[in-house]
Amino acid sequence: MLRWFVVTCYFRHLQHIFKKAGIEVTSENKREIDRVIHDIAGVEYKSYPAAWRKVKNRIAENEEDFISELKKTLIRNV
């Protein structure tokens, strides 16, 4: 149960990113989106604090690049 709380909190902070990327997060795709975010961050899946730190840094450095990579990776994984 704690894992889903972490994912929910993590995703709550990324809502503006998902909106800009045109990504609708559903219960069916949430896990896949989470895996893709971990891959983009270069962090082992389920390492939420490490992934969140890297994602925040990537967004701060270049938000549009992060959004573009997220969209491309999700399209490949669908």
3D structure, described in words:
The protein has one domain (2-77). The protein is globular, with a radius of gyration of 11 Å. The protein is built from four helices and no strands. It has 78 residues and is mainly alpha-helical. It has helices at 2-12, 15-21, 30-41, 48-77.
Keywords:
78 residues, mainly alpha
Structural class designation = mainly alpha
Give the low-confidence spans.
none
Straight-line N-to-C gap: 26 Å
Rg calc? 11 Å
Our estimate of the beta-strand percent is: under 5%
Helix content: over 70%
**Can you summarize the main beta sheet?**
none
Mean of residue pLDDT values: 88
Count of DSSP strands: 0
List the total number of helices.
4
Compile the SSE list and pairings.
Layout: H1 2-12, H2 15-21, H3 30-41, H4 48-77
Task: Put the structure in a nutshell.
This protein is mostly helical and 78 residues long. It has one domain. It has 4 helices and no strands.
